[in-house]
Specification:
Layout: H1 3-69, H2 71-74, H3 81-84, E1 86-90, E2 95-100, E3 103-104, H4 118-141, H5 147-155, H6 157-160, H7 162-173, H8 184-197, E4 204-210, E5 213-218, E6 229-234, E7 244-250, H9 253-259, H10 262-322, H11 324-327, H12 330-361, E8 370-373, H13 374-391, E9 395-400, E10 406-409, H14 411-427, E11 434-442, E12 445-452, H15 459-464, H16 486-496, E13 500-506, E14 510-518
Parallel strand pairs: 9-11
Antiparallel strand pairs: 1-2, 2-3, 4-5, 4-7, 6-7, 8-10, 11-12, 12-14, 13-14
Pfam families: HATPase_c, HisKA
InterPro entries: HATPase_C_sf, HATPase_dom, His_kinase_dom, HisK_dim/P_dom, HisK_dim/P_sf, Sensor_HK_Regulatory, Sig_transdc_His_kin-like_C
Catalytic activity: ATP + protein L-histidine = ADP + protein N-phospho-L-histidine
């Protein structure tokens, strides 16, 4: 895939994913905001209804108390209907008047402690009887009503005139302490009832404040600084003013708001995470495929170069042998035949490396292990490369500090591992190869270190040096032979021997390959 096209696809997919996440986040936030707004509306309605109910209960309480104290002025029970409706028109005052028990009602004063003063009681009684007078006036104008129906209309007067009575009672009760007008239990029960009516499941704390000063009407854990605090005026007078406010903390607001969206939000988050994980995995696979494609390209290029030389050498040797001047020269024929055999072995070795890796990955490689001395394996491996090292003017030195070197290993494959590492040390030494081999015992393990003074490698290369087919990318320069198989093969064999291998290297200062293997007693 073209590099620019690949980059464009990654950018577009990333922007799309970010857009999806943004839209999901915006939707969740908008939903939560809507739920909070709805909760606030419901909370206000709850408090308004509670405040109205408290005021209505106070009105009804005063009404029934007045009704029970003064039967002659407020209640019609037990009064003769004929006498009660024996009324006439006062032309001077321009109003109708009624008589009860043949006595004209003139004194309305209540001799009780119901209101704060006698004057208040007189005003209250006059207001009631004024309304009764008006009803009687209407009844006289409508002769079709019976006495019983007229009385029923007077009893219903309580609902019709409730607002007027409320104003009068508010003027009187405003002088009383708030705790005598309503109790904690009443406030709590009314709030609970309203919450249940609206199906709002939340705890609450409440308090009544007078001109921003706390009263003794409050629950134990009320906090004025709580985030979910709502308030409404309490005991509003006829002018719409009030000295009291009912404040409520809805302590479960967050749970109520989130409970309505938590399922959809959770599903949205889960699906978004799945998309993110799938996208990340797909992107990772794309990058790996690009890397594998690059590695395969490098492998084919290197394989072509490495096979090209031996094939060319073999062809030249065969052409030389065919030459009549050389075919009779046994020495030259023998030399050319040796070249053909060596080049053939070289190509065969590369093919074997590929097959070994394939068998290792399929667990088809039969590794028969036996008790061996690691020092002996090292000495044997050194003999395979020491002539090449000497020919280039370098050296291989061993420093065996380990007192115990018995391991359980396959002789052929483990020798190949050490040979591959030594071969890399020789190939990647620009000057004469200088190789030192160390061993030491650490607890129940033996540690083998193979150190060279070659070209070294970067940190990025060190992380991938043991991957199959991986080689440091050098473009079309093939100054170092190989297919990136030797170290991958070495790691597979060492891991099968329950060991570890890693590298410590610095660019331009050489590399040290470290192998840890378990000892056997």
């Amino acid at each position: 895939m073209n590099k620019k096209l690949f980059f464009l696809l990654v950018v577009l997919m990333s922007l799309s994913l970010i857009g999806i996440i943004f839209v999901q986040g915006y939707w969740i936030k908008s939903t939560v905001d809507d739920r909070e707004e709805q909760f606030s509306y419901n909370a206000k309605q709850v408090l308004l209804n509670v405040a109205d109910e408290i005021q209505n209960q106070e009105l009804e309480s005063y009404w029934f108390r007045f009704d029970s104290i003064d039967q002659s002025n407020s209640s019609l029970n037990g009064i003769t209907l004929t006498e009660y409706f024996s009324s006439g028109r006062d032309n001077i005052k321009n109003e109708f008047q009624f008589q009860a028990e043949a006595i004209l009602e003139e004194d309305y004063k209540i001799s009780s402690g119901f209101l704060s003063s006698g004057e208040d009681s007189i005003l209250f009684t006059k207001l009631i009887n004024k309304r009764v007078t008006n009803i009687v006036k209407n009844s006289l104008e409508n002769k079709s009503l019976t006495a019983e129906e007229q009385i029923e209309r007077m009893v219903r007067m309580k609902d019709v005139e409730k607002e007027s009575l409320r104003r009068l009672i508010a003027d009187v009760t405003s002088k009383l302490p708030v705790h005598t007008r309503v109790s904690k239990e009443t406030i709590k029960k009314l709030i609970q009832a309203e919450l249940e009516k609206r199906d709002i499941k939340t705890g609450f704390e409440y308090a009544v404040f007078s001109n921003s000063i706390a009263t003794n009407l409050h629950s134990e854990d009320f906090s004025l600084d709580h985030a979910a605090t709502y308030g409404v005026p309490l005991f509003v007078d006829g002018n719409g003013k009030s000295n009291y406010r009912l404040l409520v903390n809805f302590v479960g607001k967050k749970e109520v708001v989130l409970s309505s969206v938590i399922i959809m939000a959770s599903l949205s988050i889960i699906f978004t995470l799945i998309i993110v994980i799938a996208y990340s995995s797909a992107l990772s696979q794309l990058i790996k495929q690009r890397q594998i494609s690059q590695i395969k390209t490098d492998f084919i290029n290197n394989m072509t170069h490495e096979f090209k030389t031996p094939i060319a050498t073999i062809n030249l040797a065969l052409d030389s042998i065919k030459n009549p001047k050389i075919i009779n020269d046994r020495e030259k024929v023998s030399r050319y035949l040796k070249m053909i055999r060596d080049e053939n072995k070289r190509m065969h070795a590369q093919v074997e490396n590929v097959l070994r890796i394939s068998k290792l990955e399929k667990n088809e490689l039969d590794l028969k292990k036996e008790r061996l001395q690691l020092h002996d394996l090292i000495e044997d491996a050194v003999t395979h490369v020491e002539l090449i090292v000497e020919d280039r003017g370098g050296y291989i030195q061993t420093h065996f500090a380990a007192l115990k070197s018995s391991i359980l290993a396959n002789e052929d494959h483990f020798t190949n591992v050490i040979v591959n590492i030594l071969d890399n040390a020789v190939k990647y030494s620009p000057d004469e190869p200088k190789i030192d081999i160390y061993t030491e015992n650490v607890k129940d393990k033996i540690i083998l270190k193979i150190r060279d003074q070659g070209a070294g490698m970067s940190k990025i290369v060190q992380k991938r040096i043991f991957e199959k087919f991986y080689r440091e990318h050098t473009g079309n320069i093939h100054n170092v032979k190989g297919h990136g198989l030797g170290l991958a093969y070495a790691r597979q064999i060492i891991e099968d021997h329950h060991g570890d291998i890693y590298v410590d290297s610095e660019k331009g200062k050489g590399s040290t390959f470290i192998i840890k293997l378990p000892l056997i007693s």
